[in-house]
Design goal:
This protein has a five-stranded antiparallel beta sheet with strand order 1-2-9-4-7, with no helix packed on it. The protein has about 130 residues and is mostly beta strands. The chain has a single domain, classed as Jelly Rolls (Sandwich), CATH 2.60.120. It is built from two helices and ten strands. Helices cover about 10% and strands about 45% of the residues. Strand 5 and strand 6 form a beta hairpin.
Length: about 130
C-alpha cells in the first residue's frame, strides 16, 4: 500500500509548474502537480502511456486538438496513449493528482506556449512529422 497526502506533498514555483513524483508503482507513477496562476504545460503526448489527472483544488483548461474542457475541483481527465494535450492553469493555484502507466513514460513535446525560450528537439520533430497532431 502507498499512502500520500497531497497537501503535505505540494510544492510551488512561480517560474514553472512543479510535478513531483510521489511513487513508482509497477509500470507507472503517481504525482502531485502544482500550478501557479496562468502557468501552461508543454503541449505533449506519451506515445506508450496513459495519463490521468484529477483536480483536487483550483482549475483551468485541458486542451487537445479536438476540444478544450474546463477543469474544476473533482474533474477527472484520462489521456490515452498518444493523445496530444496541454494544461492551462486558471487564475488561482491548482493542485492536480496525476497517474501515468504504460510501457514507457517518455513524452514527446509539440510546442510550449508558456515558455518563449523552448525549442523542439529533433527527436520530437521527427515523431510529430510521422504522427501529425489532430
Amino acid at each position: 500500500m502507498h499512502v500520500f497526502h497531497l497537501k503535505t506533498e505540494q510544492e510551488w514555483n512561480p517560474a514553472r509548474h512543479v510535478e513531483k513524483i510521489l511513487g513508482k508503482i509497477g509500470e507507472g507513477d503517481v504525482t502531485v502537480a502544482c500550478w501557479e496562476p496562468g502557468q501552461i504545460s508543454p503541449n505533449h503526448c506519451h506515445p506508450q502511456a496513459t495519463e490521468i489527472y484529477f483536480c483536487f483544488e483550483g482549475g483551468g483548461a485541458m486542451r487537445t486538438p479536438a476540444q478544450t474542457i474546463e477543469i474544476v475541483p473533482g474533474s477527472f481527465v484520462v489521456h490515452p496513449p498518444g493523445e496530444l494535450h496541454e494544461y492551462v492553469n486558471g487564475p488561482s493555484r491548482t493542485l492536480l493528482f496525476r497517474v501515468r502507466y504504460g510501457a514507457d513514460m517518455a513524452a514527446r513535446h509539440f510546442e510550449w506556449r508558456g515558455n518563449a525560450q523552448w525549442t523542439q528537439s529533433p527527436q520530437d520533430a521527427e515523431y510529430f512529422s510521422q504522427h501529425p497532431p489532430g
